[in-house]
Structures are given as C-alpha cells and as structure tokens.
Amino acid sequence: MAKNLLIVESPAKAKTIEKILGEDFEVKSCYGHIRDLEKDDMGIDIKNNYRPRYIVPQDKEKVVKELKSIAKKSGEVWLATDEDREGEAISWHLCEVLGLDPGTTKRIVFHEITKPAIQSAVNRPRTVDMNLVNAQQARRVLDRIVGFELSPVLWRKMSMKNNLSAGRVQSVAVRIIAEREREINAFTAVSSFKIEGLFTAKDVTGKAVTFSAEGKKQNSAENAEKFLQSCFKADYTVSDIQVKPGKKTPAAPFTTSTLQQEASRKLGYSVSRTMLLAQKLYESGKITYMRTDSVNLSDLAMDAAANQIKSQYGDKYHQARKFKNKNESAQEAHEAIRPTYMDALTVDDADVRRLYELIWKRTMASQMADAELEKTTAKVRISTNKEELTASGEVLKFDGFLKVYREDRDDDDIVEDGEEGQEGMLPPLTVGQKLPLKEMRAVERFSRPQPRYTEASLVKKLEELGIGRPSTYAPTISTILKRGYVEKRDKEGVKRDFRILLLKNDHIEKLVEQENTGAEKAKLFPTDLGLVVTDFLKQYFDDIMDYHFTARIEEEFDEVAQGKMQWSKMIDDFYNPFKKDVENTIENAERIKGERELGIDPASGKKVVARMGRYGPMVQIGDVNDEEKPRFAKLKNTQSIETISYDEAMELFRLPRNLGAFEEKDVTVNIGRFGPYIAHDGKFYSLGKEFDPYTITYDQAAPIVVEKRAAKEQRTIKVFEKEKIQLLRGPYGPYIKQGLRNYKLPKEKQETAADLTLEEVKAIIEEVKANPPKRVPRKKKSS
C-alpha cells in the first residue's frame, strides 16, 4: 500500500514529523513559497479583477518536479504548511501546482511539533481556508501594485544611482523614524535643579546609614540657591510616614512582537536574528509557533506550567492566569509563544539556548503569583521654610514571579517616567524624629528628547499603530535597512557641563562637573535619502504615508481573512484613487532636490548648498548653470543635509589634501564614490574606516601606499594599460578585470594566464559575454 505524502515548509520540520508519524507517511518539504507573481508587467491583470499571474520561480522548479513525482506515487497528499496566512497560501499554491482540489485535500495545522499535537491534527484534518488565502493574496497583490507603480515615480523624480523603491508598510516605517529624528533635532534641552538631602539614621542593627529625601525641583540656579539659603540653620523632622502594600504583576506570555522587543532589550538580538532562532526552536519541537499575536495559553499548557512551578518553587508561587488579547484580530485558537515541554528548563543547542530560556522564564512567570511589596513614604519638614522633602523606600516582602523573570524597559518608557533606578530600603523612622543633615545638593538636570528607535521599539510602535502583522515586522525592518533609507549605528555622546550647588554646614559651594550626553547604541537613524523620499511621498501620496490609512488596510486584510470582504473589491477601492495620484505626480510634481542653502562662499561669492546628489548627500559651491564648474564634496557618514552647518560644509572642501611627496610623487587624500582613498603616482588605494581623510598624516599615509601597492602587485599577472584590462589573481584563480566587470578565465587558460595576448583576452571577454555563466540561485529560507 502506497504511503501518504505530507508536505511541510521546511526540511528540518519534515524530519521531526516523519519520526512522529511513522511508516504511513512520507514527509517532504516545499521550502516555503513555490509560486510568485510574474516579474514582468506587474504580474497582475488589473482589468480582470486584479487576477494574479503566478509562475514557479527557477529556483523552485526542481522542488516542484520532485513533489509532483512523489505525489503521483502516493496514496493521498496531505498539506501541513504553517498555521498563518502565508502558510495557508502555500497550501493553496501546492494544490494548484500538484493538481489537487483545495476543497477536498486534507490540510492540517498544529501549534507545536510534538507527538500529541501532530496526532491530534492528523485525526482532525480540514480543507484549505480560502478566506485566509485571499487575505494573503490581497496583501501580495496590493504590495506589488504599490511597489510597481510608486517606485518608477521616484526613479523619474530623483537622480539617484541606486534603485529607489517605495512600499506600503516600509515607507510608513521610514516616516516613523524620520519624524523621531526631526523631533530630536528640533528639541531644546531645558535645565532644572533636582533637590536632594542626605540624612543619617540608625538601621535595625543600630548602625548609622545614609538615605536621601527629594525636594521640589527648582527651575533655575537662582531659585535653587535661594532654596538652599532658606535651609541655613534649619532643623529637619519626620512629619509623616505612610506605609502601603504594593504588588507587581507578571507580563503576558510572548507574542511575536513582545518576543522581538524583549530579545532585543535583554539579549541584544536583532529582530531578524530572533525570528531565525525562534524558527529553529519551533522546527526542532522546542516551542510553539513563533508567528502569533495571541497571548492565550491552552489549558494543557497551563496545567503543565502549574505542575512545574509547584514542584520547582512551591505551591505559593503558582497563580493561574488567563490573559486577554488586546488585538481584536488575534485568534484565540492560536497560542502565545511557549515551550512545548514545561519541564525542559533549557536546550542543548548553545546557539538558541538564551532565547529558549527567555521564553521559558516568561511563560513560567505568567502563571506565577504577584510580587508583594511594602512601600514607605516619609515626609521631612524643614524648620526654616514651608517646603517638605520626601523619602521613599520599597521592600520586597514576597518575590513571586520575580524569582524567575523581570521584564526590561525601553528607553522611551524611562524618558516618560523620569529618573531611572529602583527605590531602596529606608531605615526605621518615627514621626517627630530629628534627622541630622549630612549635606543638601541642587544638581542641574536637563530634559531629554524621546530616544531614537531601536529595532525593538520600532516593532512596538508599528504594533501600537496597527501597522503590519507578526509575519511582517522583521521583513519590513530588513527592507528599510537594505534599501539605504535607514541605518543602524551607534552615536557618540558629547561632553556637557552641569552645575551643582552643595549646602554643607550652612555654606553653599558651587561646583561644575561634566557628563557624557546623547550617546546611543544600535539605534535607527534615517539617512538623507530616507528623509528626502519620505517628504516627497508625504507631499504627493498622503494616504500611503498616513498611519491610520495603513492601519485600516491591515484591518481590511483581517476582514478578508474572516470572509467579511471580497479581496478584489478591497483592492479596487484602493487602486482607483491611488492610480490617479500616480498619474498626477508624474505629470505635475517637480524633481526632488532635497536642497538646503547654507550661505555664500567668501572666495567665489557663490551659493553653498547641501543636497542629494547622484551618489548620495553632498555639499556644492556654485550652480550647474554657471560658467565655472561647481565644486562638490561628499558628506561624512555622521552628517546630514538637514543639520550640517555652514562651517562644517566648508571644512569638507579641504579635500583633496596634499600630504607631501613620497618617492618624488605627491600623496593626496580624497573621498570618492566608494569612500576615502589615497592617490599616489596615478594609483588609488582605499583608506578604509581606520583613518579620517581630514586628519590623516603623511607618516600614516606613506606605509599604506607601500603595503597596498605590494598587495596589488602580488595580485597582478598582466596589465594592458591602454585598454584598461588587467589579468589578476583572485581567491578562485586568475580572472580578467575590465573596468568594473570581472570575467573568469577558462580552466585550460589559467596556468598560462601570463602568456595570454591582448587579442586572446578580448576573445575570452566576448565569449563570456555571449555565453554568461548560469547563476545557481540560493535556496530561500522557508518562512
């Protein structure tokens, strides 16, 4: 009797499931999507209800051929692609390609790869849910239309060398980052003075300890000094003590977005790395499905967590909790991300261990008791004025879920809450108790702007705005980074003075200290290209860039998934006004300049502007219409068209710099299309990131010339100067370089490369051009 064929998305999953199902099933992988829209002419028949034209991409032809062959010999074909809309669409595409009826073909879904879950799914098969397929198809078609129609508008209106693109979600994500950057640039820090008194009292052991009490902030140094002066000769007395119980409650189990956020904060993982590792854990049967917006736990999972908590920590640490989904579209049947086996505290694979342990701890904590606190607030009266100081302390009476897990916070939350840090314990105090003052200080503090986004806080913002879904967050961030609209980098802080007024023994001492401010790590910065494109799209495609509009589109996808809306009608409602905007913009919009005037060059009397050039942001002296050719200088990586000053711009025109003569030839440094370089004797050597072209010295540059020249000579086999053709040695053998193109030498010519004539080399180039080598496409990772 022929085996049944079960098709899953990934080969790792196939092996695990085949072991579970035994001899009745052969389990094969389709490696993710097997069909996609045609690349030519959009791949959508606009006039025929937006009917998509699908093809099997070249890199999937072999997989499809193999699946067709096995399907013919199999008893019955079952589909077990992932449990989201993408997975449902893949199942439908498999039906189309393999000639299966989606109305009768058995389709199974499971949230975890365990024996009970797989067997339960096999016992309760369903058919392909065409509503989910249509929702995925609507997203794919809409995003293709936007990209296909919008990107050429940018090509026409902006002279850029790189391939510009726009997308429905990616462009809005760039807008979020761009707006935050402009908020930061426009922000003016306001100073105030934090009042803090340090007092001594005896702790429970009788030992003298120091604790602090805070006063009302003062808005100027003068007011702060007046307040401190008013405390001369003062007595300090405890006027009131309030002791209140408090509690902390655990967070819900992980959804896709909260896992991405917490893995970024606690582990320093990028969003894409988190998803890659989570997929490995899922496919090896260690966790439930990693793309979910549900915080729900099954009754079985809650029971397993309860048993583990009671056995590991004791009964008093357990508290069963049901969490409610905030997102109305979240499916209750789906589960949060959790371990499949609660008694597995860790995993062997070092690569995924830290992420697994994070998931395990968060899941356990969600079913544990509250942490119980005791909060004490003491008021301290000042005898010489009407002000009071406040001392606060917090004692943890029962750790509860904190025994396992403590949630981290984003920079945004810390800015909103004010000072960062935990309250400590207060010594025992009584009303009427006199407190000796050690010192009182007024410390200058500065207001802070909202911080730049991290990958994690951007995901949080997208989710808050209702933009995107669990499957789209990671690809969106990857796309905007890859396109050059956003970059992830560190920012060095700057030194800033701050004032301290110190009251001690009825004498005020004025101090000035320094702090490092504005330092940021792994933050998302909009590039000049991102800012310019965002402004253009906001001006001419307001709907596409509108947060509420984009969120409403997501809601309409959800309605299609629920069978409440026809997908082609949804696309039609979007496309008709959008197409008019495209036509109007092509006809009427001016070319994008992204230009900012900075001042006048004193030497020539010509305008100095910062603007977008063909190869990126630059500053320019003069105009293209002037008789004399304009001068150009490329901006540094840390500079921006919007913030560069006149002086900083003029400094850029110090290049090229002549550092002196080496071997009787000038050594100059400059910045070109591909970055900083040294020029010497007609040759060019990349400077790399180690040296700054504005500060590098002759003594640093000369050894670079010697070293790189030697390396170049070692690589060079032969040079035809006039034709600008070189024969070079590479890691894979000899090759021909003509301009920016490389041509591989045939095997039979490699040993005699040094003897090749110009005519023979030209013949090889023509042969390769006529018969280019076939590229072996890389296999796409399954989603």
How would you characterize the overall build of this protein?
The protein has 783 residues and is α+β, with helices and mostly antiparallel strands. Among the domains are: 4-128, Rossmann fold; 191-249 and 372-448 and 486-521, Distorted Sandwich (Topoisomerase I, domain 3); 256-369, Topoisomerase I, domain 4; 596-652, no CATH class. Helices cover 36% and strands 24% of the residues. It contains 22 helices and 30 strands. The strands form nine sheets. A five-stranded antiparallel beta sheet has the order 10-9-14-16-17, covered by helices on one side. The protein starts with a strand and ends in a 13-residue tail after the last helix. The model is unreliable at 778-783 (pLDDT under 50).
Structure summary:
The chain is an alpha+beta fold and 783 residues long. Helices cover 36% and strands 24% of the residues. Helix 3 packs across helix 5 (130-157) and helix 5 runs antiparallel to helix 17.
CATH-level-4 superfamily name of the domain at 191-249 and 372-448 and 486-521: Topoisomerase I, domain 3
The appropriate CATH architecture of the domain at 191-249 and 372-448 and 486-521 is Distorted Sandwich
Oligomer: single chain
Q: Any idea of the CATH topology of the domain at 191-249 and 372-448 and 486-521?
A: Topoisomerase I, domain 3
> Which CATH top level class of the domain at 191-249 and 372-448 and 486-521 fits?
Mainly Beta
Tally of helical segments: 22
* Number of separate strands: 30
Order of strands across the biggest sheet? 10-9-14-16-17
